Amino acid sequence: MPNIKHPGVYIQEIPTIHTRIVAVPTAVPAFIGYTQNAARKKDGDLHLTPTKITSFEQYCRLFGQSEAEPLHLELTSTSGGMVLKNTSPVLPRQMLWYAIRLFFDNGGGECYVVSTGNYQISLTLSALSDGVQAAAKVDEITLLIAPESVLLATADYQQIVNLMLSQCDQLADRMALFDLPDGDKSLNTARLSTNRANLGNNHLDFGACYYPFLTTTQRWQSARNQQHITVSLDNGKTTQLSQVKADNPEQFTVIESLLADLYVCLPASVAVAGAIALVDASEGVWKAPANVQLRGISHPMVSISDTANEVLNTDTSTGKSINAIREFSGRGVRIWGARTLAGNDNQWRYLSTRRLANMVQESVQKSLSWAVFEPNDANTWARVTLSVEQFLVNLWKLGALTATRSDEAFYVHCGLGTTMTANDIHQGIMNIEIGMAVVRPAEFIILRLQLHSQQA
Length: 456
Fold this sequence. Notes:
The protein is of the alpha/beta class and 456 residues long. Helix content is 32%, strand content 23%. It contains 13 helices and 20 strands. The chain starts with a strand and ends with a strand.
C-alpha cells in the first residue's frame, strides 16, 4: 500500500477510506504584527486577514519591506579608538519583516501572516489582540507568535500572553511561543521572578518561552539612510549622523565602519519556529525541538552558564520553565531547552509531548467526521477503534511512542460501559479515550475525545 506524506509524519493508507486517520500538519505558525502594507489586490485588503505564505519573497510582495526607522548610537572614546556603547532601540520597531526572514532561514515552510496595521500606527495591545483573535479562525494554524509583544507595557504584555494561551487551550490544536521582555538583560533573581510572573498562571502547558534575544546576521535597514540615525559622543550631545559627516569627515568614517558591524537583534521565538518546522519535517513532531543549531544568528545577547540554565529550566514554586538559547564553542548557537511553561507538570512538561497530543487529537477528530451520521452502536465503535489503532500503530513504528510492543505503546477505548453510558448513547454522544506512552512506557498521556453521533 502507498504511503501518504504529511509534514513531520508518515501515515500508511488503510483500505476503508471512511475510517482512515489522516495526520494534520504540525508546524504552521501564525506571525502576528505590523507590516509596511497588507495588499493583494488593493491597499489594506489583507488587514487582519490571516494569509498563508510559503517564502520570504511572497511576504515582501504582499506585506512590503522594512523601512528605515530612527536609530540612536551611543559612542564612547577609548585608548583603542571609538566604540559603540549602546544602540537604541534594542529591537527594531518594524520587527516582522526581519522575523519572517529569520523564520525561513531556519527551515520554516508554510506560515500565516496576520497584519495588524502599518508602520505609521502605534503599537497597541488592541491591535495585536485583534490579530490573535483573527488567527483563531484558521484551523490549520498550530503555533502563535507575536514577537512585537515584548515591546508592550508590562500589563499589556500580560494580557496578550493570557489571550494567546486561552485561545490555545480552547482550540487545543496550537501552542504559543513567547519571549521574555527582558531578553536583552541578564536575569538576577528579582528580574527573573518578575518576568515569570508576567507569563500568568493559566493554560501553561500550551505555551513555551525562550531567552535571551538573539543578535542576527541581518543588517539594520536604517543604516542605509543616515537621515534616520543620531549619535551621541562622550560630551552627551546628540547629533544627526549626516551633520557629523559634514562637520567631521574623519569621525564619520569611523562611525560608518561601526555601522557596518551593527546587526539587528530579534526575539528568539521566531528562529525557534523555523527550527520546529525543520525538526517536524525531518524527524517528526514527537522529536523535541532542542539541541538544534540556529541559522542566521551571530550570538545570543546574553551568555548563559550551566548554573543559570538550570535556574531558567526549573522553578519549584511556579514551574514556568524558560528555554535557553546558548552558544557553544565549535557548535554554534543552539536551542537548549524543550519544556512548556508547565515545568512542574509531569504530563505536559515537554513541548514535544503537548504538540504530539495536539496532533493526534486534531487528526482523530477531523478524520472521524464520517461517524457523526453513523448509528451509535457496537459496529461503529469497532470501526472507530480500529482506525485509531491503525493510526497509532504507524506512529509507534515511526518512533513517536516509546514501548517495545504496540500493545504497550497505546490503548483505545470506545464503547458502552467503558467510555459511554446508556444516557450518552441516548444523547447521541460517542466518547473515545486514547492513552499513549509518549515519554516513558509506564507513563500514558490520556486524551478524551467526544463526537456527537446521530442517526442518518
